[in-house]
């Protein structure tokens, strides 16, 4: 393809053609050797000629110029033939065939094939090429006989020698010498009056025929003899050509002869026009312009444009200014601009001593090209000539030449040798100066710096190129249009105008598709009318036609894929510029292998999060239209895997802007393409495309009877630990490392079915089909089968995959393998959402959101793939996180035994009890596995545990309520079990267990949990743990509350006097007999009473029991409704005992005390608690159904102990007794009659009041005594009654004091005494009291 180099007017084009069966790689190798000669020194070109006129273009031996060469590999279009005189530089002036030979026998066939190829390429009558030669390269040294023994004109053997490159230079010099000779021959024809007349006959003239030329031009001695068979045109041609080319002299063989020039011209029918009238009115401007072109091509720029003399171009310009010939004038201006660059290049290489003094010399060149562009625009094409395409071609070439000038100066950082080299580069590909690499075109700062240095802005280059694009491009042929658009897009790309580049490349793509369609039609791909076409597969003769037998074979035409890859790459690049990633879905060789990355890729894991938060770029309407074009182009090629790739990539990246119809269309197109690709056996397949389909993966809960529980072996000795009952209590610590370490992996059993619940998502509006979904695991082998899934549109869908772990160890679930129909399996990992992972994802979201709101990069550099390329070299601190991912893990334990409940003694699982009743139930277990059971433990729960645990968790209970709640949970369970019944159960054997049941009010249901294990499993080895399983038995419980306790009270025991007997009688007081029968003294006792109400319809007998240390047990039985009363002995607790804090049975740790009580109140609270506990240890009650067999316990735990009750129940610190005696000397007279606590006295009689104090404490105490008598105004006494000092009394010691009283009136007097202790905190506030009654009468 023509690169439209700036100096193309000065390039001698030598067409390189492959000859024979030469491989393309070998042809490119030989062609690259030839292309190393981009220029030849004029001094190296032979100047051997015998005709001075023909040798006018040959250089002098001392010439210092250069001949610039170009080596295209494609001939020009035949439609450009009319430009052969106006623009000879676009035609190949010589043709060099490249062949590979290994023996001398095939040289003749190569020579014949070379001539045949030239006849096919160049039409008859073509002026060019001027010289033709075939280079036969020797593959190995000595394989070809250089002396063939016969003359093969136009064939040169290039030997395989060490200095073959130098030899090629010599051959090219000879070839160029022959071209320059032909320039002279052509010039002679044009300098004649007839030639000049033909030169000015039309806008785009053709060379004149032979019959119109004067006879002197046909003399045989006018030009060198050229003996070339293939250079002589056929005599029978209807027109002649000046393009017959001489053969090249063979440097290593015999020299060729030089035939006369007459052999190079064809004889045609003479014209009737008189020759004497030719050239009389024709201008010489075009001839001067032709001479300038030839001198420019021959490297004689000093002859084409001489600053100190008249030049051919200047002469032509002078003529064209006066004549109305804008087309040739424009071409002349282009030649003058090219001469300026050649001269500047020569000066830069030291060829000339003078340099231009103009500061910006490229302005003059640009002005000439601007003038040429304006002249082309003013040229009007005659309607009678189909020259529109040629006009457009010349105009576009001129615009590209000016744009190339500006770009070369801009990219080379100014006017200089580098800019000249860029403009003169004749290679098959555009030359990019080293100052502007391929990666710099997106560097905004660098591009603007070039504009600042050169004074040429990128917008000025783009404005110049903008003149090129317009509707006139449609006049160009496909090849010329592609070449023009290709160069335009290249310049746009180099100056950083990528969107304009993409716009131009879309037109290039359209031209290429048109050429492909035309090429397929020319190759016979289109069906002929008499051959029926099948539907869809391009198979012929599938359906028989009339007259055709059924034996006809169906043939499907082979589709050529040459060039498809380049078109698809171009299409992908255009879409990337517009913000569409058509390669977002990978396309690779189809494989069923499942690749697991170790460690997993962090970028792949985060791609969905990044895509979700990324800011949309580009114009949605344009993107959707381009996507439709891209899919249509891929279908037209056809490339079915790429069709699916483009369609699915668009679905993934443009989902938010695609309409439902577009989504359906793209998905349906991709599905059809994948089916067709699979049917045709295409080895390529696409990766999974729908983003991350997995939302979550979880282990399906196992049946409760199959769940293994890991326990330490020490648990076998802690089966009575109450902690499981209180496990619902909230840990008061914010962080408890013990509990934090309890969270482990899930436990599963070897060779038992395991199910995983996978949640999949489909964000599209169509049902998404997945060919396979399977688990990605590591660790122990996991045996499972993939499944096919169809996810409904725009919804979440759950699937269950089951399998078995075949070995013990750790099973790690990394994620899932997902495969779409016709695609490649892809692994999607799903790590656990830990705190660290949550923080990392939140940090990444913040970074993406912050970058989306900032404009750090130009719009085209904000695409995801651009950002990814920029950050490739930046070390990613999070790259190591992939190896630290935590995945869902399951610990596979050895096979475990399995029990089931065979039967039970409970009818229909329902149990009915009275409150406090105790009963038993029996359960039979059966071992249905092949593994024995050697460990068995029972635990239970009921409906009362949950509310109690919740109340404890809330922490709003008082210390008394907390203790009672925990007491009921631990010491009064509904279900109990005797651990001595734990026995081993052999495989396929039964065992019956007996459980105790206790009726608790509020219990409605309960569950019996039976834990079992094979603790001595040899597969566990020395492990410190074993694995349990549980089987549960639920119960429906009904508890009737028939007895209600209330009004508990403690009363002082009545003080009865000791039994006294008269000396002369044996009579005993009946009350004393009753006291002796109760064995209760009158001191240190109190009465316990409680009211019990029967709310049930059946009578019950209640027995109240008293159990105290050192005293005989006693009981009191009655039938409700009467209340219960029983005497109990008072007790006293040590100060150490009552100062203990109120315990919590759960051993819960309290960080901060929340009580607001004072010390006195707290002390009183503790005394109440501990004395209550002692009271309930002394007193208990049981009930029995009257006339029945059911019995149970009656609980007093709901009753409260008050302060008066505490004072009554607590033993006094001392025993105080009062007595009255007369003061008579005789003992008989001193006795006073009494009845119980009442004593009978007479008034106005002195009596002794005796008070006795006995220390009941275990330590010495100092006592004082306070006496009181009421009414005090009717008696007199001796001394004082208050704070009588008793003194210090040892434990058990007593002391008696007395005082004299006299009652002054008759009546009832109450005498009391209070003893107080001092010297110990235990006695502070405690008082011992007693009283007696005195009845004063006259009788």
UniProtKB/TrEMBL annotation:
Residues 5-346 form the Trs120/TRAPPC9 N-terminal domain. Keywords: Golgi apparatus, Signal. It is found in: Golgi apparatus. Residues 694-895 form the Trs120/TRAPPC9 first Ig-like domain. Residues 1044-1209 form the Trs120/TRAPPC9 third Ig-like domain. One of its GO terms (cellular component) is trans-Golgi network. Pfam families: Ig_TRAPPC9-Trs120_1st (PF26254), Ig_TRAPPC9-Trs120_2nd (PF26280), Ig_TRAPPC9-Trs120_3rd (PF26282), TPR_TRAPPC9-Trs120 (PF26251), TRAPPC9-Trs120 (PF08626). Residues 1-27 form the signal peptide. Residues 367-680 form the Trs120/TRAPPC9 TPR region domain. InterPro entries: Ig_TRAPPC9_Trs120_1st (IPR058565), Ig_TRAPPC9_Trs120_3rd (IPR058567), TPR_TRAPPC9_Trs120 (IPR058564), Trs120_TRAPPC9 (IPR013935), Trs120_TRAPPC9_N (IPR058563). PANTHER family: TRAFFICKING PROTEIN PARTICLE COMPLEX SUBUNIT 9 (PTHR21512:SF5). This is TRAPP II complex. It comes from Crepidotus variabilis. The lineage of its organism: Eukaryota, Fungi, Dikarya, Basidiomycota, Agaricomycotina.
